[in-house]
């Protein structure tokens, strides 16, 4: 029924369409300017209108053939569009291809197909939904913008991640069709950025880059998620995300490049001594501490250097180049060199980037120098790039090897390349003073080469070299003057003339003779040579007018009537300058000083010298010009903007953002806003950063001014906060997101806990602070393997009570391996484990453990929230030992930070079956709050909830594996009695936890 | 990102165009043709060319230029890598990637390009997924399709696209379950005049052909994994496992794929005393001389095997670009045939197999242009060869295990060494 009527609708619509088409065709017939014959088109039309599917399909295939060849097939539009609702999927797809190609030209007719797509957007098959959106959004007809907008919004919350991905692509299409829609599209982007699917991530970041690359604030909350998803995103998405995060990081973190140690290869010494220097620096200047989020990005991108996709490898390489501390950048060298084995186009781009890098950091590529040796089969542009890199890498130690290699290149049959090599030799000669003479001699030898271009290039380079140290080289100048007759390349002749003129006082006998010869051949020389003849004449006139006066006048007369106006001008100018007469002004007095002034030597430097102003790996860098849409990489901020904007927690970010908001609107200092927030939510823990927040907010303010007006911003922020609360209920385990920050702090930057600029950040998270600091140090270590049974290997383990880096659902364990024997132990690693369902993260094998040495490794085990023992084998090269770990239930938790209100709210949801309680008599001395706190928290890894009561203590945590909430309440009664209540839906855990808590509090 | 694609053949005709956004006139290619004219060799066309409103990024494969039109900033490698992926896909679908094959299959090409990019951003580039969306043409299927009117286009979204293993389709079934791995190493060498090695590197790949039912989980371990110091993986390889245990653990894609590629160099970065040199499997004795004033030059070349662990060197082909002054070469080969092209001055000698007892040689004279002076440079010699049953780096697979499925697969591993860019300077 429905489809029938729709079909009818389509057909009637098509009727008018066909009529229009006929009119068009008539018009065409008159002009007859299209390549395909009408009979053929008529036949196609007939086929399309037939009842046979196979005929229609055949017709469509032929039409696609026409489109592919670039022939115009637009007049078939009415006949084609009729088939848009056809059931045959291949036919339908080909119609889509056609439609997208011609819709822009045939807007009215294209509209007829819209309803079909709108219907297909509701199809149960996700492929059909996605392709409908793809086509709909590709039809560039402004009238349907509202329909597209609606479709995009709906698809952005589709169940299928594939459809959501398509909607991210559609955002860009709509934006290019109608930039007015920007604000609405940003809303969709904001929503899609929160998407957790790896399929969507790359596409939405692409849309972000295209539509609103300046809205860096949208990234904050998704930063850690993007970092963590990165490895699993498809390769193209990886490239886009990495380059966006590079830009992001440069606005959010402080520079990891120490002050004083500039970004320059001249400081290699400092670079190698950096350890000792760092220590010294710390006492003098403020020590640099890397933001854990900065570290997270570096850590999570590094494995991608192993990608098979060259664009991904390059993206990581540029990220390290622009973001990593100086001594870590070389991590990318090997992978970049590996890319040189790829296709020639890849080589070309990679070599360009290496050329830029090798100027600043010779050390990075020097060990791989031989990978840049030129092969006779390389294309010319690859050869020149390799040459460039070799020249950049040259230093005192390797110059002899490089020059020997260059000697082979000079003889190359590819003369353009030989010429480039000569220039490279010249650069080596100026850069490394030890070899200047050797190079110069070599170049002089080349002057007798048979090949014109080689000789010419040599002359030009020698000229530049002589200019840098003209004192002792009159012999070479004489030699060149002798060769002059044989040299025909204009540039070379001009160079020799210039040299003779410049140093005419060193070759007083030869110079006038050369001028004499030149006067003879002046008319037949090329312009560039003529100019130099005039120059030479002028200089000689000034130094040796007796011999050359007549010659000079003769030459100036020739120049006066030359065809080239440049030469006429120059001649006139020179005559006025050197020949004194009454008309000539004050200038001629200074003629000598003007013409024979000592000239600065030309700088022979790399063509890639300034390329680093562009972000590496970009099109702009490759072209050495700013491509449209290029996003400038900002300089590091002097003071890092607030780090907590990246925290993804239910409450705190909102409060924080709110604080900011007030600052922005009222323009007041941070103290005031602090008061205001605490009014609003007295239990808020955001006594946020006394010292740092002021400057942060200031910065924020500045940024706001720059980016958007603050009103829009505050609106966006408010909406964000609401969204946040709305969307994140039930809240995801905060430990998951938080763990990165904590573990980052704990693992890579243990120093971060010393008071410093981070203090503000810590105080805003009292509960997390306690977790990190661990004042109760429950580092109870347990024996895993005794050295007697372990043939000398002993192992002890403890729970560091920190989220596990690699897999948030795993409990982190640290195992201390000690070699108690007198033989070194080799190859210590984890063997098989049971039960088979157990997932664990192995520690990286210990290659060798010396006698009496010990090493601590960390591993993760997913206990699946049960206290079932994990059994595995600890192996050395020789033996295997079965060991077993049975965790206490308290170790399967991670602290959660909740406010009292939230605690009560959550507790309210976990009543009945989910509540267990017991009354105990506490041991003496456990009654005081501090002790009680300590007892509970050493037993179980819970976070304290700050409450107003003295007699009620609340603790909250989440199970590591499933993230279920575990709430513990200890309520003191009269005397030493107390009630312990555990609320969680993990009932087994609850009873075990209760038992342990009873023990901990009751016992002495 | 990628606005349009033009395919240009060696005679400079555009034979296919495809646009993913609004149509870009093909006249934009004029800038490309200009660059092409300027280049002396087809390979010398710069891969990135700016034009007033667009940027052209091109790759050259199988004598076809794939020219992508870009409108704004994008990493050039992104485009280059994608274009190569397009070529690989065509090759995979049609067996060859020639102008004729593309023209014959223009509809499939269009359908592929449509799936591979959406709005210029890569959508599905994984061959397994594409093959579910668009079935590769075979003679049988073409016949069936014409008769029954069925199509090449899949109706469902490939499951792989959504799963955690996007590279593998589900429901794979084979009657014979087999997994073959080819370890292929190419050796790149520059040897100088005196016979000493200037650089030597090995570029190795492990190509797999896996036809296994279900969702097999494979582990491949090596006798000497330390050799593999610089590796890149197919996305299926579990990187962490490799880092920790030096074992390749992966759920394979179905069919042919490149599992990993690696790079072994003779340069720094290796522990002292640990394979500091790449073994060179053949040696060349040469004596090529031109004398000043004489119109004759001597040419004398002998090849011999070296460090091949007893394996035969096959399919040997020697080529050399002789200097421009050489008019003709009058040589005699002890085995195989040689040709000299007097126009391009290219000398090629198809040697075949090297017999260690009777070393192949090519001797004789070259005639030079009368009166011309002696060439500056001796020609360098490029050599191609193959050695079966051996990986020159010494890499050896230890074992292959399969988990997750019950049947016993048939497993096979083949080794081969080839000359890559093997160049001898004389």
From TrEMBL, chain A:
Biased composition (Basic and acidic residues): 697-712
Residue ranges annotated for the Beta-adaptin appendage C-terminal subdomain domain, each copy included: 892-1002
Region (Disordered): 1-24, 668-716
GO annotation, biological process: intracellular protein transport; vesicle-mediated transport
Keyword Transferase: no
Origin: domain of life: Eukaryota
Domain AP-3 complex subunit beta C-terminal per the UniProt entry, residue ranges: 733-868
Keywords annotated in UniProt: Cytoplasmic vesicle, Golgi apparatus, Membrane, Phosphoprotein, Protein transport, Transport
Function summary: Subunit of non-clathrin- and clathrin-associated adaptor protein complex 3 (AP-3) that plays a role in protein sorting in the late-Golgi/trans-Golgi network (TGN) and/or endosomes. The AP complexes mediate both the recruitment of clathrin to membranes and the recognition of sorting signals within the cytosolic tails of transmembrane cargo molecules. AP-3 appears to be involved in the sorting of a subset of transmembrane proteins targeted to lysosomes and lysosome-related organelles.
Similarity field: Belongs to the adaptor complexes large subunit family.
Gene for this chain: AP3B1
Membrane topology field: Peripheral membrane protein
GO CC aspect terms: AP-3 adaptor complex; clathrin adaptor complex; clathrin-coated vesicle membrane; Golgi apparatus
Localization per record: Cytoplasmic vesicle, Clathrin-coated vesicle membrane; Golgi apparatus
Principal location class: membrane
Name of protein: AP-3 complex subunit beta
Provenance organism: Gadus morhua
InterPro entries the UniProt entry points to: AP3_beta, AP3B1/2_C, AP3B_C, AP_beta, ARM-like, ARM-type_fold, B-adaptin_app_sub_C, Clathrin/coatomer_adapt-like_N
Cited SUPFAM superfamilies: ARM repeat (SSF48371)
Biased composition (Low complexity): 683-694
TrEMBL record, chain B:
InterPro entries for the chain: Adaptor_comp_med_subunit, AP2_Mu_C_sf, AP_mu_sigma_su, Clathrin_mu, Clathrin_mu_CS, Longin-like_dom_sf, MHD
Domain of life from the UniProt record: Eukaryota
Family, similarity comment: Belongs to the adaptor complexes medium subunit family.
Primary localisation category: Golgi
Compartments where located: Golgi apparatus; Cytoplasmic vesicle membrane
Protein name (Swiss-Prot/TrEMBL): AP-3 complex subunit mu-2
Gene Ontology terms describing biological process: intracellular protein transport; vesicle-mediated transport
Cited Pfam families: Adap_comp_sub, Clat_adaptor_s
Domain MHD: 176-425
Species of the source: Gadus morhua
Its membrane topology: Peripheral membrane protein
One Gene Ontology cellular component annotation held by this UniProt entry: Golgi apparatus
Keywords: Cytoplasmic vesicle, Golgi apparatus, Membrane, Protein transport, Transport
């Amino acid at each position: 029924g429905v489809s029938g009527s729709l079909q009818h609708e389509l057909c009637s619509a098509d009727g008018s369409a066909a009529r229009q088409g006929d009119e068009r065709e008539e018009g065409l017939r008159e002009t007859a300017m299209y390549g395909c014959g009408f009979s053929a088109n008529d036949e196609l039309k007939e086929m399309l209108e037939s009842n046979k599917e196979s005929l229609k399909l055949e017709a469509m295939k032929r039409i696609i053939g026409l489109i592919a060849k670039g022939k115009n097939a637009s007049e078939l539009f009415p006949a084609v569009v009729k088939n848009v609702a056809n059931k045959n999927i291949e036919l339908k797809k080909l119609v889509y291809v056609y439609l997208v190609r011609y819709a822009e030209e045939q807007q009215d007719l294209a509209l007829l197909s819209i309803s079909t797509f709108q219907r297909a957007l509701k199809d149960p098959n996700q492929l059909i939904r996605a392709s409908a959106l793809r086509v709909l959004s590709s039809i560039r007809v402004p009238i349907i913008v509202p329909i597209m907008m609606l479709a995009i919004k709906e698809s952005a919350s589709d169940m299928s991640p594939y459809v959501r991905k398509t909607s991210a692509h559609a955002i860009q299409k709509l934006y290019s069709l109608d930039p007015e829609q920007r604000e609405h599209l940003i809303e969709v982007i904001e929503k899609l950025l929160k998407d957790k699917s790896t399929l969507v991530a790359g596409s939405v970041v692409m849309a972000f880059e295209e539509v609103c690359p300046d809205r860096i604030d949208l990234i904050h909350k998704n930063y850690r998620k993007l970092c963590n998803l990165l490895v699993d995103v498809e390769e193209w998405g990886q490239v886009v995300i990495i380059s966006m995060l590079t830009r992001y990081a440069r606005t959010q973190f402080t520079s990891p490049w120490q002050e004083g140690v500039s970004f320059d290869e001249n400081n290699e010494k400092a670079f190698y001594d950096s350890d000792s220097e760092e220590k010294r620096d710390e006492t003098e200047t403020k020590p640099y501490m890397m933001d854990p989020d900065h570290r997270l990005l570096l850590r999570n991108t590094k494995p991608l250097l192993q990608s098979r996709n060259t664009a991904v490898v390059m993206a990581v390489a540029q990220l390290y180049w622009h973001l990593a501390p100086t001594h870590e950048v070389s991590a990318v060298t090997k992978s970049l060199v590996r890319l040189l084995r790829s296709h020639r186009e890849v080589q070309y781009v990679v070599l360009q980037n290496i050329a830029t890098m090798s100027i600043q950091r010779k050390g990075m590529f020097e060990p791989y120098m031989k990978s840049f040796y030129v092969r006779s089969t390389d294309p010319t542009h690859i050869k020149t790039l390799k040459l460039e890199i070799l020249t950049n890498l040259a230093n005192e130690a390797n110059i002899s090897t490089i020059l020997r290699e260059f000697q082979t290149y000079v003889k190359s049959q590819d003369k353009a390349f030989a010429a480039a090599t000569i220039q490279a030799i010249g650069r080596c000669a100026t850069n490394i003073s030890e070899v200047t003479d050797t190079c110069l001699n070599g170049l002089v030898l080349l002057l007798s080469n048979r090949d014109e271009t080689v000789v010419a290039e040599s002359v030009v380079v020698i000229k530049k070299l002589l200019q840098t140290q003209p004192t002792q080289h009159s012999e070479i100048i004489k030699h060149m003057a002798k060769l002059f007759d044989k040299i025909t390349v204009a540039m070379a002749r001009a160079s020799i003339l210039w040299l003779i003129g410049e140093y005419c006082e060193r070759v007083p006998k030869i110079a006038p003779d050369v001028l004499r010869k030149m006067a003879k051949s002046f008319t037949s020389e090329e312009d560039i040579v003529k100019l130099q003849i005039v120059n030479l004449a002028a200089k000689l006139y000034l130094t040796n007018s007796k011999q050359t006066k007549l010659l000079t006048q003769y030459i100036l007369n020739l120049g006066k009537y030359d065809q080239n106006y440049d030469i006429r001008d120059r001649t006139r100018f020179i005559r006025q300058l050197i020949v004194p007469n009454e008309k000539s002004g004050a200038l001629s007095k200074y003629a000598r000083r003007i013409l024979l002034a000592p000239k600065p030597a030309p700088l022979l430097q790399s063509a890639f010298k300034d390329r680093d102003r562009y972000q590496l790996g970009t099109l702009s860098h490759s072209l050495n010009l700013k491509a449209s849409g290029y996003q400038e990489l900002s300089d590091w901020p002097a003071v890092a903007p607030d780090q907590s904007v990246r925290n993804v927690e239910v409450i705190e970010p909102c409060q924080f953002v709110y604080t900011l908001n007030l600052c922005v609107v009222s323009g007041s200092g941070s103290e005031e806003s602090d008061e205001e927030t605490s009014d609003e939510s007295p239990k808020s823990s955001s006594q946020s950063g006394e010292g740092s927040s002021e400057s942060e907010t200031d910065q924020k303010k500045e940024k706001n001014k720059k980016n958007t007006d603050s009103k829009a911003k505050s609106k966006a922020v408010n909406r964000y906060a609401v969204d946040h609360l709305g969307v994140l209920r039930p809240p995801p385990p905060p430990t998951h997101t938080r763990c990165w920050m904590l573990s980052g702090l704990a693992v890579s930057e243990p120093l971060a806990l010393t008071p410093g600029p981070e203090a503000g950040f810590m105080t805003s998270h009292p509960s997390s602070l306690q977790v990190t600091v661990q004042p109760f140090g429950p580092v109870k270590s347990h024996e895993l393997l005794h050295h007697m049974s372990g043939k000398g290997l002993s192992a002890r383990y403890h729970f560091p009570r920190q989220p596990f880096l690699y897999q948030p659902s795993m409990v982190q364990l640290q195992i201390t391996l000690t070699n108690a024997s007198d033989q070194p132990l080799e190859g210590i690693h984890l063997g098989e484990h049971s039960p088979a369902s157990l997932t664990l993260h192995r520690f990286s094998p210990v290659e060798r453990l010396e006698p009496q040495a010990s090493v601590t490794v960390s591993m993760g085990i997913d206990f699946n929230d049960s206290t079932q023992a994990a059994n595995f084998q600890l192996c050395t090269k020789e033996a295997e030992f079965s060991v077993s770990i049975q965790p206490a239930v308290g170790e399967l938790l991670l602290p959660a930070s909740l406010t009292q209100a939230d605690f009560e709210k959550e507790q309210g949801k976990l009543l009945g079956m989910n509540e267990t309680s017991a009354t105990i008599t506490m041991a003496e001395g456990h009654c005081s709050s501090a002790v009680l706190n300590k007892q509970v928290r050493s037993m179980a890894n819970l976070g304290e909830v700050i409450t107003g009561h003295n007699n009620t203590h609340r603790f909250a945590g989440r199970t590591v594996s499933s993230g279920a909430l575990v709430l513990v309440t200890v309520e003191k009664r009269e005397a030493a009695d107390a009630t312990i209540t555990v609320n969680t839906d993990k009932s087994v855990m609850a009873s075990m936890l209760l038992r342990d808590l009873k023990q901990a509090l009751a016992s002495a | 990102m990628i606005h349009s694609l033009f395919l240009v053949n060696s005679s400079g005709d555009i034979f296919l165009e495809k646009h993913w956004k609004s149509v870009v006139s093909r006249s934009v290619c004029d800038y490309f043709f200009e660059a092409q004219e300027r280049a002396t060799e087809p390979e010398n066309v710069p891969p990135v060319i700016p034009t007033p409103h667009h940027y052209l990024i091109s790759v050259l494969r199988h004598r076809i230029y794939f020219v992508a039109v870009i409108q704004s900033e994008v990493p050039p490698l992104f485009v280059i890598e994608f274009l190569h992926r397009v070529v690989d896909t065509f090759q995979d679908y049609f067996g060859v990637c020639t102008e004729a094959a593309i023209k014959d299959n223009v509809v499939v090409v269009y359908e592929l390009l449509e799936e591979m990019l959406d709005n210029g951003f890569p959508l599905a580039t994984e061959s397994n997924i594409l093959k579910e969306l668009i079935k590769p043409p075979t003679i049988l299927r073409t016949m069936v399709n014409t008769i029954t009117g069925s199509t090449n286009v899949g109706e469902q979204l490939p499951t792989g696209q959504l799963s955690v293993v996007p590279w593998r389709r589900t429901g794979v079934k084979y009657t014979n379950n087999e997994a073959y791995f080819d370890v292929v190493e190419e050796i790149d060498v520059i040897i100088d005049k005196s016979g000493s090695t200037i650089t030597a590197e090995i570029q190795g790949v492990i190509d797999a052909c896996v036809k296994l039912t279900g969702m097999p989980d494979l582990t491949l371990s090596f006798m000497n994994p330390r050799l593999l110091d610089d590796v890149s993986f197919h996305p299926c390889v579990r990187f962490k496992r490799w880092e920790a245990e030096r074992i390749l653990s992966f759920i394979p894609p179905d069919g042919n794929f490149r599992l990993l590629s690696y790079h072994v160099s003779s340069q720094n970065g290796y522990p002292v005393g640990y394979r500091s040199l790449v073994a060179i499997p053949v040696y060349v004795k040469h004596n090529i001389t031109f004398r000043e004033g004489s119109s004759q030059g001597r040419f004398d070349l002998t090849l011999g095997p070296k460090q091949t662990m007893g394996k035969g060197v096959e399919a040997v082909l020697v080529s050399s670009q002789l200097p421009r002054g050489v008019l003709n070469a009058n040589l005699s080969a002890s085995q195989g045939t040689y040709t000299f092209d007097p126009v391009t001055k290219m000398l090629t000698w198809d040697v075949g197999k090297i017999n260690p007892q009777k070393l192949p040689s090519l001797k004789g004279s070259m005639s030079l242009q009368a009166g011309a002076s002696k060439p500056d440079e001796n020609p360098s010699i490029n050599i191609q060869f193959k050695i079966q049953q051996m990986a020159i780096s010494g890499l050896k697979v230890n074992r292959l295990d399969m988990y997750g499925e019950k049947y016993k697969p048939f497993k096979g591993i083949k080794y081969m060494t080839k000359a890559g860019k093997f160049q001898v300077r004389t």
